[in-house]
Each structure stands twice: as C-alpha cells, then as structure tokens.
Amino acid sequence: MRQQVIERIGFAEEWLDRAKRHCEGGDVPRGLLTLFLANAEMTHALRMAHETRPSRRRWLISGFAVAAAFSLAMVALASSAGISRKFAVANFWGG
Predict the structure, then answer these.
(1) Whole-prediction pTM
(2) Closest CA to 73 of 21, 19, 26, 31
(3) Which end of the chain has a smaller Cβ tally under 10 Å, C or N?
(4) Which domain holds residue 46?
(5) pLDDT tens digits, residue range 42-91?
C-alpha cells in the first residue's frame, strides 16, 4: 500500500505541473480541468492511506464525484470556447 500511495502522489504532481503550464500558457479552462484530475489523484491517495479494505459505497461516491467534476470542466471549456448552450445541448443529445 505504501508504494501505491507514493505512486498516486507522483501522478498528482504530474497533473499539477500540467495544470500550471496550461494556466501559464493562457489556457485557464484546460488548466482547471487538469487541476480536477490532480485533485482526484490526491483524494485517491488519501483514501488508500486510510482504508483497510475497499468499500463499494466509497467507490460509487468517488465515481459520481469524478463524473461531476468532469461535467463541470466540460461546461467551462464549452463556455470559454464560445459555444452557445442551446447548440451544445442539441449536439449532445443528437438533435
């Protein structure tokens, strides 16, 4: 478990570095999306360190949290790209 936590910390560091580069390059929405990924890695590392056995409920909650973060990031990217809400929803649902 110790090695897995260390690996997750390394992944989080990589995501944080990418997020910083995106923001410094002027692509703040993409930097924020990447920041969500870093946060997910850090959360996963913390849960691994405190969990003695995996809980199905925790995985389900984590999945919903990641899905919500991804959805928010996609909305931010769409709004920063100037895509109208009506167009984005119509294309998403195949309309």
Answers:
(1) 0.53
(2) 31
(3) C
(4) 2-92
(5) 888 888 877 655 566 667 777 777 777 777 777 777 777 665 555 555 55
